[in-house]
Amino acid sequence: MKELTIISGKGGTGKTTVSAAFAALANNKIVTDCDVDAANLHLLLNPQIRQREDFTAMRTPRIDPERCINCGECETWCRFDAISHDASTYVIDALACEHCALCARVCPSGAIQLKDTVSGEWFISDTAHGTLVHARLGIGEDNSGKLVTLVRREARQLATEEGAALIINDGPPGIGCPVTAAITGVNQVLAVTEPTLSGIHDLQRVAGLCTHFRIPLMVCINKYDINSDNTAQLHEWCTNNAITVVGQIPFDQAVNRALVARRSVIDIDCGAVTSAVRQLWETVQARLIN
């Protein structure tokens, strides 16, 4: 079984567009959306949910007002200023709380108990292009890295059960914890970038992350024809750092029309873009096999 994660140093580079296209082109695979903070792959794959489960990431402190003796120890020890006195008891600000559980340890009356908290949901769905494992983190909730790990674990289990030879992960943007969770242990990473100054800078950060974890990295330049100087700079930097540019995708308004129709650039013919993405997939697939 091979595993490919598609990432980008920044949002809006076309990462999910490429992921949806690969989902349409690949055979015998499981697809995941690991961008749990802002999942949108489902918009293009139109999934029918087969299984829905709650995601519990942490235990949240709760104050029992009947047992609270108003000693103020919890407020004194909380370094995040998440506890305050309200009328006759103490209350915890859920957004400020970091779930460290120190308040429960210092409470002399045992009034603070840790309760499991539902932080989001994860799903197994059927699509026209196979099984999709995806998730949705709650607003303001933490531990997106744990949810990404859960999504990948479920995908690997399904791949084993269904005999799938490939897992395609639509990863998060940036270089934070969710990205680390999405790339650790995969066979290849494909970074989708664009010929802008921010695109160049963020690709360099992504490359540093992959180097740190010793994961092979390849690059696709999306909208390569909007700035030839920056595209040349991307090629030069990749060459100097022994990174292969495996494809270039031109800019075309037809892509926007396909996305508005909630279809991939494979499902709707976008001319040169569709041809470029097909060639990109052939190249990526060959590198996965080898």
From TrEMBL:
It comes from Chromatium okenii. Keywords: Iron, Iron-sulfur, Metal-binding. This is (4Fe-4S)-binding protein. PANTHER family: 4FE-4S CLUSTER CONTAINING PARA FAMILY ATPASE PROTEIN (PTHR43534:SF1), MIND SUPERFAMILY P-LOOP ATPASE CONTAINING AN INSERTED FERREDOXIN DOMAIN (PTHR43534). It holds the Pfam family Fer4. GO terms for molecular function: iron-sulfur cluster binding; metal ion binding. InterPro entries: 4Fe4S_Fe-S-bd, 4Fe4S_Fe_S_CS, CobQ/CobB/MinD/ParA_Nub-bd_dom, P-loop_NTPase. Residues 59-88, 90-117 form the 4Fe-4S ferredoxin-type domain.
